[in-house]
């Protein structure tokens, strides 16, 4: 709707500017990622309440709580999900031994299966403990094929985001314009991913039973 379009346009300008400035000051890039994830959490939470309006941007009053913590939450979720796969790669690289693909591929597959549910749990609870396998794995089994389908759509949107960024850069050889267009599409698709997670929670909150944790 109109409000969502305005927020996407403003968000594109803000996040592109933060990304550009982050090229000169790495800490600012990390804080920008934290702010982006804080906004994505808002989209998940509003979608989980079946709200149709796109939420406004988070206000910043305490930067450690509202920028650093979201960045750490996102990083921790990624590490827990894909840590075993990357740990396996690092171990064989250091040991200079042959990396067994029949082991590596399933580890990455498990990471891709684990990550969306862990991200949903973290977004809803705002807690590092939400990535606990005792919470995430039972939640995945409760949804079964429905979750697998949602996961395929989730990573399909991720793939579409990176493909469109590459195509836009090749099709629009105009300074700044490709960055703004790809930034808008990236923010839109990222918002769709978070919307998907929030609606998945809304449709299955009784099955998940997270209100009991």
Give a quick precis of the structure.
This protein has 213 residues and is an all-alpha fold. It contains seven helices and no strands.
Report on the structure:
It is globular, with a radius of gyration of 18 Å. The protein has helices at 2-22, 26-48, 63-95, 101-125, 133-143, 145-171, 177-208. The mean pLDDT is 87. The protein has seven helices and no strands. The chain is mainly α and 213 residues long.
Summarize the SSE layout with pairings.
Elements (H helix, E strand, L loop, with lengths): L1 H21 L3 H23 L14 H33 L5 H25 L7 H11 L1 H27 L5 H32 L5
Helix pairs in contact: 1-2, 1-7, 2-3, 2-7, 3-4, 4-5, 4-6, 6-7
Structure keywords:
single chain; 213 residues; mainly alpha; 81% helix; 0% strand
Helix count? Answer: 7
Extract low-pLDDT stretches: none
Shape: globular
Mean pLDDT: 87
In what range is the share of β-strand residues?
under 5%
């Amino acid at each position: 709707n109109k409000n969502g379009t305005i927020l996407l346009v403003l968000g594109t300008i803000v996040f592109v500017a933060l990304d550009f400035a982050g090229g000169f000051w790495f800490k600012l890039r990390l804080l920008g990622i934290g702010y982006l994830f804080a906004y994505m959490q808002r989209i998940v939470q509003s979608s989980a309440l079946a709200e149709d309006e796109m939420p406004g941007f988070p206000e910043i009053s305490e930067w450690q709580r509202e920028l650093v913590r979201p960045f750490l939450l996102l990083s921790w979720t990624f590490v827990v999900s894909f840590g075993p796969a990357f740990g396996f790669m690092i171990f064989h690289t250091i040991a200079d031994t042959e990396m067994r693909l029949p082991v590596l591929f399933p580890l990455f597959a498990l990471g891709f299966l684990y990550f969306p549910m862990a991200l949903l749990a973290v977004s809803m609870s705002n807690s590092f403990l939400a990535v606990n396998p005792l919470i995430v794995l039972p939640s995945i089994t409760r949804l079964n094929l429905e979750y697998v389908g949602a996961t395929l759509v989730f990573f399909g949107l991720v793939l579409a985001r990176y493909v469109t960024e590459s195509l836009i850069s090749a099709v629009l050889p105009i300074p700044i314009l490709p960055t703004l267009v790809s930034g808008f599409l990236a923010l839109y698709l990222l918002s769709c991913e978070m919307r998907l997670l929030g609606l998945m929670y809304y449709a299955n909150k009784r099955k998940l039973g997270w209100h009991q944790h």
